[in-house]
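Page 42, continued from yesterday. The earlier attempt failed because a stray header line got pasted into the input along with the sequence. Redoing it now with the clean sequence only.
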Amino acid sequence: MKIAVIGSGAAGLGAALALSDSADVMLFERDARFGGHANTVDIAHTGAAMTVDTGFIVYNDRNYPNLAALFQHLGVATKWSDMSFGFSLGDGRLEYACDSPDKVFAQRRNAFNPVFVWGFREVLRFCKVAPRDLAAGRAAGLSLGGWLAERRFSTWFRERFILPMGGAIWSTPTDRMMAFPAESFLRFFANHDLYTGLDAAMRWRTVEGGSREYVSRVIDRLGARAHCGVGAAAVTRAGGKAHVRFEDGSEGAFDHVILAVHGPQARALLTDRDAEEDAALGAFRTAANRAILHRDARLMPKRRKVWSSWNLMSQGAGDKGRPVAVSYWMNRLQSLDPSRDLFVTLNPHIEPEPEKVFAEFAYAHPLYDAHA
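This time it went through. Structure tokens are written below.
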């Protein structure tokens, strides 16, 4: 059996490897490298060599069992990571982090600010109410905005916690988060142990040496069956075969084709799609996101005490219509040299100083809504 796998992200790599012993599998990747969001970079940071991931960074065993099993199968070494959230809102006028009371009140005046204290009490209420509503089915059919209104959460909680956090997780403008399906939103928080409040959450892991370690091991096993820089242009079906036309004009016939790409890409490739396929694939959308690898601390919270693994850099009203800026503190996420701060910022709210930028990448992330 001859099978083509189009796309070499985690789905494509996993599919190609799983089928490689029982079928004649060929993997095709349009880009100049394999891996999709698994993109590890080597840099020289103030005279020191460093290796860092810029896309896929962390996973956990409970919610990524197949990925964890793949790493074990490949003999990929992993290490403990850290998942913590810091907020820098309104150009740093309000800053707090969620992993200890000391960091919640990093701005000491907030301990005497009834609006802040009440707002954070709502964060703790959310951590109790949300899992109960999820289990009881009370969020079914509601948008996130509708559920928040029904549960009478305040404007402070909405604008200074849940919408920036959701916008950061899904790389989505905060105003679009209100239409997000509430049940999916609450289930994601449950699956990723985000209802712990100030208590310790589950441990996360990262790949030792960067995510390219698992990518290279899959490619090594596929050998000559993996083709980089070979993009598919169209997929059609005729005579019991799937026919792939490539961007260089060549063609190939296969018994099966796996489209391991985003929904919009799959829809564009499948040129003979029927109405049902068109409707299903047309429900998926993606958003383009800039990812900048840099060492400019201006794109982090002003107060170092607030620095966390994920740092939500919201401009408030200025975020409407654009994704929330998120700065990942790579030293904490991947146990890098603590004397050389290194960050990956998605959709920066200000541009980092050019001399402090190591690399820039464009990633597409799926948009989650009721249609998807």
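Notes: Residues 84-200+285-366 form a domain with the Polyamine Oxidase; Chain A, domain 2 fold (CATH 3.90.660).
Reminder to self: strip header lines before submitting.
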